[in-house]
Amino acid sequence: MIKLIVSDMDGTLLNDEKSISPATLEAIRLAKENGIDFMVATGRNLFEANDTLVNAGIECAKITGNGSRLYDENNEEVYSCGIPLELAFQILEVAEQNDVFIEIAMVEGVISDNPARHEHEFKAYLNVKYPHLTDADFDTMMVMLRKVFPVREVTSYEDEIRKNPHDVLNFIFIDGSHPEKLVTLKSEVEKIGNLKAVSSDFNNLEVTHISAGKGEGVKKIAEIRGLGFDEIATIGDNFNDIEMLQEVQYSFAMGQASDEVKSHAMFVTKSNADDGVAEAIQKIIELNQRD
C-alpha cells in the first residue's frame, strides 16, 4: 500500500510555465482523500520551492537543495547535510582551475559573483530549451524566472562562505555552451572526496555532500515516518532524480525524460506539459485499490 508520493518539481510537478496545472492539483487532492500523502524533492531551496507551492495552495514536507535539507509541512527543518567549509573551498579551486562559471545555493538563496554571466546562461538555456519562443514570450519567461530563481550578487564567495559556514547547500557549475566540460568536472569534484555531482539539466552540474541527495532524503523521510520503501512512490525527470527512483519499489519517470532516467523507473508517465504527475497519481491510486 503506497502511503507517500515524493515528486520532483521542475520538469515534473511543474509544467513549462513553471506552474502546477489544475489537473495535477486535483490529483494531489484525490491522493490525500485516498490516504496518500504528498511531498516534493527538489534542487530548489526552501524559499524557491514555497514560492510556487504556497501560491498553488500546497502545504507539504520538502526535500530541498537536492537532499541537503529536509523540512516538514510547517517549514521546520528536520534534517540538514550541507557542504563543510574545507570542501567548499576545494570546490571553488576546481572551478577556478577549469575557468568554469559557478554559483552557490545557500539556505537563504542562490548567490553569484557574476550576475551578467548568470543572465547570459539563463538566456542561452531558454534558447536551447524553448527555441519556438517569440521575443515577447522570451522576455516574459525571463521575468518569471528571475522571480522564481532570485540571485543575490556578492563580491566574494570566500567571504560569504566564511560568514555563513553552515548554510552552504550545494555548488552549481553552469556551462550551456560547453556542457561536455561538465563531465570532466564531475570526475574532478568527486575526487576531492565526500562529494557527489549530478545534473538537473544539460547545462549544469550540482555538487552536494555525499550524504545528501534526493535518495538520501527519501531514506530519511521513510525513517522519520516509519515507512517501508514499498510504501513510497517517487516521480522525476532528470539525472538528479535517479537515486530516488531507484530507492523505492514504485517509481515514475516523466515522458520527456531521457532513456537513461526512464530505465531506472518502474513506470513511464506523460510529460510535464501533459499532466504526467496527475496520470502517475491516478495509477498510484489504482495500485492501492488492487491491494
Number of helices: 12
Major sheet size, sense and barrel closure: 8 strands, mixed
The low-pLDDT segments are none
How many domains? Answer: 2
CATH class of the largest domain: Alpha Beta
Shape: globular
**Gyration radius, in Å:** 18 Å
Strand order of the largest sheet: 5-4-3-2-1-12-13-14
Helix content: 40-55%
What is the CATH architecture assignment of the largest domain? 3-Layer(aba) Sandwich
Q: What order do the helices and strands follow?
A: EHHEHEEEHEEHHEHEHEEHEHEHEH
**Multimeric state:** single chain
Q: What is the beta-strand fraction?
A: 15-25%
The CATH homologous superfamily of the largest domain is termed HAD superfamily/HAD-like
Note down, in words, how this protein is organized.
This protein has 291 residues and is α/β, with parallel strands linked by helices. The protein folds into two domains: 4-81 and 213-290, HAD superfamily/HAD-like (Rossmann fold); 85-209, Hypothetical Protein, Haloacid Dehalogenase-like Hydrolase, Chain: A, domain 2. It has twelve helices and 14 strands. It has helices at residues 9-13, 22-33, 46-55, 85-97, 115-129, 135-148, 157-163, 180-192, 214-225, 242-247, 259-262, 276-290; strands at residues 4-7, 37-41, 62-64, 69-71, 77-80, 101-106, 109-112, 151-153, 168-174, 195-198, 204-209, 232-236, 250-253, 267-268. Strands 5-4-3-2-1-12-13-14 form an eight-stranded mixed sheet, with helices on both faces. Helix 4 (85-97) runs antiparallel to helix 7. The termini are close together.
